[in-house]
Amino acid sequence: MSNVTQPVLVFGATGQQGGSITQALLNTGWRVRAFVRDLQSEKAVALQSAGVELVMGDLNDPLSIRKAMESAYGVFSVQPSSGQGAMYGVSDEDEVRYGIQIADIALESGVQHLVYSSTDAIGDEPTGMGHFDSKARIEEHVRTLPINTTIIRPAAFMEMLLMPGFGLDEGRFNFFMKPEQSMQLLALEDLGLIVAAVFADPERFSGSTLSVASDEVTGRDIETVFSEIAGRQITYSRFHNDTLSNNAFLAKLTHLLDTGILAGTANLDDLRAINPELRSLKNWLAGSGHNAFLEALGTAGEWRYGHS
Ligand SMILES: NC(=O)c1ccc[n+]([C@@H]2O[C@H](COP(=O)([O-])OP(=O)(O)OC[C@H]3O[C@@H](n4cnc5c(N)ncnc54)[C@H](OP(=O)(O)O)[C@@H]3O)[C@@H](O)[C@H]2O)c1
Description:
The chain is α/β, with parallel strands linked by helices.
């Protein structure tokens, strides 16, 4: 349990990553302050009911960021990205600006530990994928700060597998890997547990870059686990060539899987030592992901993310 009385300011607390981090911090005794755009939104109200202090702000308003950081002990920094398509209308330059601004204001505000959430799809060279390379630029800036900083590199979220457009409603599942290729996946709850452990031990994690995943699976593994949990056959194959020729975003990601960039580099044994509950895809689908999986089995739709 944390003995720190000052709060951790969480960006994106109404979203996937920030939501998971908020829950894990609350569970381990931290005070949490959430940076939200709308104090009245359903998710903001739910956070408040769970004991979270709300501060209203917008990433386009640096003054609101400054105000939110007053007396904060720590900051969890995550930004929306162009990879989320039209959802937030954010460009790669916007994302870089937001991430650098949060880091600079954290330094000026006397924040003691900044945890920046990047992506594990980063190599030594630019990937050519805007919303990965933007994060490499933010990472570079975060590393220059003379305060405790930790960079978290999450793998692809298991939750993403259940988005419409991958064929689950038609008894198939199409994704980036060839059937025998493997890829690391992350359950968002595990991300929260790992980040809470990072805040709890700044001496151990300050200055480090930690790749985070929960499991590593091949396309065949996904077929087996999906079929078992669905109670009927779900056939796995890589995206069809026609799909890839018509969708440059998916084609680039598939190429990055082949080059290893998207495959994931997390050390699962090390992560298990931090979070012994690390979820396998099967455990996640049988547990907290179960309802979403059942819903995905009955939901038709087009893949809507990304831009070409
Ligand atoms: N999908 C993956 O597998 C994966 C893996 C690794 C990294 N990532 C990265 O994860 C990031 C997205 O995180 P996420 O999935 O947690 O996002 P998310 O669930 O879409 O949530 C986005 C959050 O950002 C907030 N927000 C959006 N625009 C804002 C603004 N102008 N000012 C203040 N807050 C704003 C939203 O608040 P509202 O409630 O007000 O909308 C929401 O809380 C992206 O950078 C993505 O590239 C994704």
